[in-house]
Amino acid sequence: MVYVGETSRSLKERAKEHEADVRLRKEKPISEHFNGAGHRVQDMGHMTLSKHDVNNECNVFLQKPY
């Protein structure tokens, strides 16, 4: 899965939030994916491919292919 987005928090902190959403079965896209596709929270992995200081217009451009 590819995630492109922005956050003011660290990747580690954001990843923990995603993992909690999955465990608590929150109505969020990542939770629905991992709880509905035969995955487990242990199947999740995270890595930073690129980090940019960008404005909203540039972020929309980076997110568009996904």
TrEMBL record:
Biased composition, class Basic and acidic residues, residue ranges: 9-22
Domain of life of the organism encoding this protein: Eukaryota
Region named Disordered: 1-22
Name the record gives this protein: GIY-YIG domain-containing protein
